[in-house]
Amino acid sequence: xxxxxxxxxxxxxxxxxxxxxxxxxxxxxxxxxxxxxxxxxxxxxxxxxxxxxxxxxxxxxxxxxxxxxxxxxxxxxxxxxxxxxxxxxxxxxxxxxxxxxxxxxxxxxxxxxxxxxxxxxxxxxxxxxxxxxxxxxxxxxxxxxxxxxxxxxxxxxxxxxxxxxxxxxxxxxxxxxxxxxxxxxxxxxxxxxxxxxxxxxxxxxxxxxxxxxxxxxxxxxxxxxxxxxxxxxxxxxxxxxxxxxxxxxxxxxxxxxxxxxxxxxxxxxxxxxxxxxxxxx
Length: 281
Hints:
Layout: H1 3-13, H2 19-29, H3 34-50, H4 57-79, E1 91-95, E2 98-105, H5 106-117, E3 124-128, H6 137-142, E4 155-158, H7 178-188, E5 197-199, H8 207-216, E6 228-230, H9 238-245, E7 255-257, H10 265-275, E8 279-280
Parallel strand pairs: 2-3, 3-4, 4-5, 5-6, 6-7, 7-8
Antiparallel strand pairs: 1-2
Helix pairs in contact: 1-2, 2-3, 3-4, 8-9, 9-10
């Protein structure tokens, strides 16, 4: 392994730590390549900005500096990434000098996202479906010799707009209920051990599916780390809210977002008694 690869590996091994990123920036500046030097300045500017309060004028100046560098050199930096997604709409967000957010299509990520995660310190992953359905999920996952490693993911967003196929119209051999299948898949995904925030907003989740979700959460691989669950803009009613209030929550879960659901004041009061200020309605 050459020096560049070794320094990048140190960044990937400790995605929350600024120091490996700053050491990598020092190396880039010393290569003599102008694109590398610009990346070094970009990394330092983003890290410095992240350390300042949002209202600090110096943060705004540093963010503007980083944006100018990215506008000029971002295409070159993106070309250094694995060519795993050239035909589907994907958005990559740089934070502290590296790709930390990926917004993409679930199907494409399942087949190629592992390559990307092995190359960049992603901590926020958003997966959607192009048409709102996810047929063949079980077969798709079974076909992977090595499922994507999600051990550094702290925030996972699924959807929005995942559609439901009524059971009477569903062909079991060809189509599954997207949300039910995803809930089971996510809660049992072996490497998703550091998940702190699970976002399932806008997926037409009803009372029954919400109850199934909270039943699975204490046994999930991320039960020890989950702090926030976002079920906003779904189809929950008072019955679902009461099921959530009586659920056996993971010990660290302190925030539940239910905005945009049909939850009345009495159920809201019960939820607030359980979660206090952590309930958002």
